[in-house]
Amino acid sequence: MALKITVIGTGYLGATHAAAMAELGYEVLGLDVLPEKIEMLRRGEVPMYEPGLEELLRRHVAGIEGSTGRLRFTTSYEEVGAFGDVHFVCVNTPQKHGEYACDMSYVESAFDALAPHLTRPALVVGKSTVPVGSAARLAERLAAHAPAGADVELAWNPEFLREGFAVQDTLHPDRIVVGVTGERAEALLREVYTTPVAEGAPFVVTDYPTAELVKTSANSFLATKISFINAMAEVCEAAGADVAKLAEAIGYDERIGKKFLRAGIGFGGGCLPKDLRAFMARAGELGVDQALTFLREIDSINMRRRGHMVEMARDAVGGGFLGKRVAVLGATFKPDSDDVRDSPALNVAGQIHLQGGQVTVYDPKGMANARRLFPTLGYADSALDAVHGADVVLHLTEWREFRDLDPAKLAEVASERRILDGRNALDAALWRKAGWTYRAMGRPSA
Ligand code: UDX
């Protein structure tokens, strides 16, 4: 009989994973502790903007006309325990307030709530990003509290999906990594992923701590690449060199590669910043903090980028923001997402606002979240409206919509034709042709 799957936590990771498992043909039960979220999902609505996810979900959610009915949702752990052979735990692990360490309370609550209902053989699979050593500890907790005892096993199966590409990355991952303690768990996970998902994808089997570390080290490496090129951007600016050309040229070396070498205002979001901070905190606990001191530098290069963009904007408006209008294009931490968590764009907008600038933000999908987080900023309904009367325009999130803007049209409504490209993504020649002074980070002025 086909395995029955449950997914605990229906945020980015969980909602996508649940829909993808249904797409692969499994009967899936998704759980969240927030009843309003469950109600939305039952109606086939996704609580965040993620390309393709709503369509995928609606293809499978029970009760939606024409759906396969394979995907259902609940708030009951009892139901989850009775239903599933394999339970994926997908709850989030945010940064603790005022600390580097990550907050494990959601993971711990999920395990504590699930364990007493594991009355029959089951595999619990952790997908959340956790400090190394967590899986071993959680396995002990399961063993102590699950009525089925040794028939309940734990595996750790980190997830590498990117926001904006969540569906594609889940259905076509570039690798599957599983940390297990026995052959039975490995066999079950091979069975779960024996579908188009795993086709061609390397299946890496290892122990718990290695699986946990694969995720945090991968994110640290990606962050390092971005901060490396941003450090080069600082040097390029001082030396009159062009960081975009430099990135292109070093990227032809396959050992370096072209990806993740776009200089700009740096990384943000719900993963990279908090994962590298949690990684440093954990290294400290393990007595190897020296091994990761370089990550502190990666973090500070990244944070410096935001300040540098504020300085560039201040210079552009003549040395002070008082009485100046600043148009901000972009609020989300990256395009194709409505996520504003630790968004460099909003951080820059907020700093300028605090320094007396009159900021107007426009973002294609992030407006509602931005308004909630930064209610005192000004907002506009379109890029054109945001730019109206602006003394300087800041391009801070590289949405396609902004690349498609007509600089000549914007030139008619702006007070001053000055644009700063914080993502090195606009066509400089096009903007200059329309009469704009275009400046990008780490590149010569003209
Ligand atoms: C990241 C990892 O890529 C993913 O594997 C992991 O599962 C979760 O964390 P995500 O947070 O969705 O995914 O964003 P990502 O595409 O990695 O971008 C992170 C940030 O880096 C964004 O703010 C982006 O604008 C910035 N970035 C990325 C750069 O500044 N330059 C680049 O060259 C690439």
Q: Using the 3D structure, state the CATH architecture of the largest domain.
A: 3-Layer(aba) Sandwich
Number of E strands: 14
CA-to-CA gap between the ends?
66 Å
Question: Largest sheet at a glance?
Answer: 6 strands, parallel
The order of strands across the largest sheet is: 3-2-1-4-5-6
Note poorly predicted spans. Answer: none
Shape: globular
CATH class of the largest domain: Alpha Beta
Give the DSSP E fraction (strand runs of 2 or more residues): 5-15%
- How many domains? The number is 2
Radius of gyration: 24 Å
* Structure class: alpha/beta
Helix content: 40-55%
Bound molecules: uridine-5'-diphosphate-xylopyranose
Overall residue-averaged pLDDT value = 96
Q: In the CATH hierarchy, what is the superfamily of the largest domain?
A: NAD(P)-binding Rossmann-like Domain
CATH topology of the largest domain: Rossmann fold
Please report the number of helical segments: 18
Organism: Streptomyces albospinus
Family: Belongs to the UDP-glucose/GDP-mannose dehydrogenase family.
Protein name: UDP-glucose 6-dehydrogenase
Keywords: NAD, Oxidoreductase
